[in-house]
Design brief:
The chain has 124 residues and is mainly beta. It has one helix and eleven strands. It has one helix at residues 99-103; strands at 2-5, 8-11, 16-22, 31-37, 44-49, 55-57, 65-70, 75-80, 89-96, 113-114, 118-123. The strands form two sheets. Strands 2, 4, 5, 6, 9, 10 and 11 form a seven-stranded mixed sheet that branches. The chain starts with a strand and ends with a strand.
Length: 124
Amino acid sequence: QLVESGGGSVQAGGSLRLSCVPSGPTLSKYCMGWFRQLPGKEREGVASLDKDGTPRYADAVKGRFTISRDNTTNTLYLQMDSLMPEDTAMYHCAGDHDCVTIATMSSTYPFNYWGQGTQVTVSS
C-alpha cells in the first residue's frame, strides 16, 4: 500500500531523495515515518512527520536528512544529504493513526501501512 523509490548507490558525501507514494490512503490523514533496516537487524527509525507537519529526526541523521510531504501529489519524501557508509540500509516508509508510535519511531510496532522498501548503498 506504500511504494518507495529513489534509492541507489552513491559515494559518501552524496545525496539521494526517497519518495513514498500510497495506493489508497491520503498521507495528510496519517502520521508518517521513514525507517531503515539491515538484514537480521532490528529496524531503526530515521524521521517522522506528524499530521500537522512537525518533523522529528533520529540523532544519527539530524542535520543531514529532511522529511517532507507534498499534499498536492500525496507523496512523502526523505531528502538525504551528506550520506555516510553507515546510512546503508533498506529504507521503508510507514504510516499509522497511532502518532505516538510513529513519533517515537517504534522498532517493533506493526504499522498500518508499510512499504516494501528501497535500497540505499553508500560507499566510502
